[in-house]
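hey
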């Protein structure tokens, strides 16, 4: 995952938000990125490493091409309008960990009620969170950019298609290997004029 993200931000020099499901994953990827990228060339910010949420967002918006790594509350409730965010990377589909005590308790109650906890609880919650995550990039009709999902389940699992269908119909989607997606993303931004089209491309792939 870290190598895929590193290749992407080296090729796509745009303000980038990367959404994770855990702080541990953020720490691992942040270490990889800061080791590989000169901070004078590109600012890398991470939840839990670079200050409070408010400070992170302010520093991110003050730069032209910063990279911000966040989890939890970064999936919703932050406003990065228009050119302030152009590339959104979703590291993993936002399912709650089944090992969390609260999730285990909810699963137990649903099973006792004769319900499937995955399809009646986990999938709807993850689908809503995915929509909220994509909403960080799409706030107004003038917003544009690319959403890159590094989780092959969106393309290979039946429930992945259910999640894709929950996204706005106006968003073109594609599934491919990472090299082709990287080339397509590069071309997308090269062709984007000063007054960009009101469109977002959502890509998902096997993380390589």
């Amino acid at each position: 995952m870290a190598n895929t993200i590193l290749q992407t931000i080296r090729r796509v020099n745009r303000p980038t938000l990367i959404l994770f499901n855990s702080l541990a994953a953020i720490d691992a990827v942040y270490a990889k990125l800061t080791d590989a990228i000169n901070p004078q060339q590109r600012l890398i910010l991470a939840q839990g490493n670079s200050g409070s949420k408010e400070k992170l967002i302010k520093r991110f918006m003050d730069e032209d091409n910063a990279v911000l790594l966040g989890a939890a509350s970064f999936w919703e409730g932050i406003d990065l309008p228009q050119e302030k965010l152009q590339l959104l990377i979703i590291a993993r589909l936002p399912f709650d960990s089944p090992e969390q005590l609260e999730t285990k308790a909810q699963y137990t109650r649903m099973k006792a009620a004769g319900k499937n906890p995955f399809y009646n609880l986990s999938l709807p919650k993850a689908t809503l969170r995915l929509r909220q995550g994509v909403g960080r990039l799409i706030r107004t009709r003038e917003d544009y950019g690319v959403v890159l999902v590094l989780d092959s389940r969106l393309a290979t699992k039946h429930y992945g298609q259910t999640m894709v269908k929950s996204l706005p119909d106006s968003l073109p989607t594609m599934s491919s290997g990472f090299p082709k997606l990287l080339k397509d993303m590069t071309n997308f931004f090269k062709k984007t004029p000063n007054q960009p089209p009101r469109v977002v491309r959502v890509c998902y792939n096997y993380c390589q």
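The longest helix spans residues 117-134. Residues 195-199 have pLDDT under 50 and may be disordered.
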